[in-house]
Write a structure and sequence with these properties.
The chain is of the alpha+beta class.
Length: 908
Amino acid sequence: MKIFRSTLNSFVFYILFAVAYFTAGKLLTNFAFQSQVIPIWIPAGIALVGCFIWWWRFIPALFIASVAFNLSINDNAINDQVLIGSTLNEVALIGLGVILQALVGAALLRYWLGNPLHLKKRQSIIYFIAVVGIAVSLISANIGVFALSEFNPAYSAANHWQNVIYWWLGDALGVLIATPFLLALLQPTFKQRYVSPLPTIAVCSVLFVSVALTTKLYNQESYSNAIQIAKRETSIIENSLLRHLNLSQIAVQSLASQIQSTPTVSKQEFDSYSAKLLAEHSFIKAFSWNRKISPDQVVAFNTRLSELYEPFSLTPRVTGAPLADDDPLVVVTYIAPLAGNESVIGFNLFSREDRRETLLDPRIKNHPVSTKIIQLVQTKQPEPAYLLFAPVYQQNNEVASIKGYATGVFLVENMIAQSLSIAQNEMFNISIYESPSSPPFYNNAQNVPTNTNKLTTIEINFAGQTWFVDLTIKDEFLPHQNNNMTLFLLILQVIVSSLILLILLLFNYQHSALSRLVAERTRSLVKAKKQSDLANQAKSRFLANMSHEIRTPLNAVIGFSTLAKNEDSVETLSGYLHKINLSSKSLLSLINDILDISKIESQKLTLEVAPFDLNNLLDRINSMFEQSAQQKGIGWKIDNNLPIDTWFEGDVMRIEQILLNLCSNAIKFTSEGEVKLSASSKKLSEQRLQVALAISDTGIGIAATEQSKLFDAFTQADNSTSRKFGGTGLGLTIAKELSLLMSGDISIQSEVGKGSTFTLCVELNSCAAQPTAPQKSPQHVDLSRLKILVAEDNSVNQLVIKAMLGSLGITPTVVENGELAVAQIKMHDFDLVLMDCQMPVMDGYQATALIRKIKNAEQLPIIALTADVMPEDKAHALAIGFNQHLAKPLELDKLTECLINYVDVYES
């Protein structure tokens, strides 16, 4: 596509487009829509315009820019928030998706729709927006999100199709806004179809700013709302954790109270009450009763343990030496459930530092005290848990002393699972520590960074321990907190942008259409003016030629007439009159040509269809031109291959007119060699034949460049032809038009200096040979008996018609107008009326109409004598009531032939 004036400019912009793709991508990541969404991806429009301008040549730059952008974001914190690739395979696949989308969109523009700023149809605007802008953008979205889900382990695939939609809508906005903007910016001013870029640039800029600001404001508002919701949830989480921790204290204290109330609690009683507590709370792993004894009581206590657990085939013994000499022994006596905990029976809690530290805590006298988090090894996988001790005192003692400790084992994960709802787990990454410097003993998001979007740390104190609960908002919570509203906003932005762009492109279309119309009208006017100038030049040349052609015979008429006045010799006068007659006929032929071209141009020339003998016509042509060729010293030949006994149906007079013109031209333009007329026919069907009449000469020939305008009116091959050979330039035009009216044509083959061949081809119906009636010659008819009335206003014409009729032995009655003619007919009987059509007082048409009220056409024939020779004039005359039409100038032979039709024929 030609946009740039030079290759250097094109190369510079090629590099700029690649850089613009990279830079625009970097800038737009700052508009990340909550997370994993960039709402308007301008690089998609840059890629489309690049491929539209440079086609496949833009692929390397586009691929490099796409890969470089994705890899450059890899170490950025925003990589965890937006749909961007990181691994080489991933970014390569994303780059291929970008290329495929840009190529498909560019192909649709290059080979179907065209430049969006210069679309030729209104529906093309809709196709651009719906197909190129929106539908094609699905390509990169699907390929890109597939690449993320396939190659990026950190990518959350939980909302795969939603991410596809977000990517798709972002690309669609980028294409719709950036494509017209860039094309308007790069629009070449040196081309004719130039549209002012300012409206397009302004509208697209406003659209981009509107989308960006709307996105930013909505993003901030959504983020603020999400933080407020999260903060409300932190209080709920804190209360829920404290409540469940208190439940654990209540359970241990309840067990201690039960043992306190039963001084000699049995194993069965302990198991029974413990089972009830275990059934109530799933986060309790086990309960135990731990008896406090002195070292000298160990032997007796072992005996008692053996007796208690003999039914269970167990022989437990006290294990674990005290860590200090003055430490008592706190021995696990009962435990529920027993299964899986058999090895714990007889274990001395003072043998473990963490247990000893808890039991020596002074606060244990007032309320249960907890150990730090321990890892249970009795389970298949180590589980975090804590032990809670509640003291049981001796009864009936004046001095309170601790008899032992009720102990509960509580599972941290089970307790937290009951404390938190599913929504809270989806909202937060939760990490719980015993101190800020220690690793967390609980974390609901393994191997996921927890310092991003950290909301707060809750400090929980219970049973002598302190837990620190870190609450970090999950990345997934922010974009999906208002999923429906987010999607609605993106769709609304695409719809509004599409509508505004539709109006903009319709405006450009109207402007372009108006510009094209003005340009077309301008070209038409220029062409029409050029044609008019050429026509005026041709007509000027024609008038000059006509002036010459008319003045030549007029010069002969006037010259010989003047000479005849002073000449007494009969022989000389006869010669003068003969030349005057020839010049007059030449002038009449010229006028007839002008009338013919006028009829043709007005489409009022009609052809007759009547049987005729084409062989007879060729004989007449031969007799006409044989002597002319001999006088010029060239050969004349007719090669007739037509069937002898076949006649044709058509206008023989017009065919003869064409042949006369072509043959006379051939002889006129041939100075040596010969002229040949060839006739042949080809049978097309039973009654239809194609007749070909070819006139060949060895004359001057016609150049190929001049042949195309040879049949134009008022033209000849060149002006020198007219000067050298004469002629008006109408003959071939008339011949060509007549051939076309006959559903035929005239073709030409010519070479300068070697001659020309004009071929007339017409299709004619054949018919059988027609019988010919014998011609009646004037000397066999007595016309003197005719009583003729002549209505003629011109005195010269009166003398001419009286002289012609007098030569036939007729003495006519002559009147000056139609009114007098009507009066004469009312008073006298006439055999025939010769009526001029254009007369003063009353013209011939009005007079004939009045006469026809008195006498019909059979009673009184009326012959029109007029210079009105157009077909419509003849038709009008016949419709008024004339019997026949004779054209002026009147020839004696034609007048005689007409009068013969209205008298009785007598043999002499």
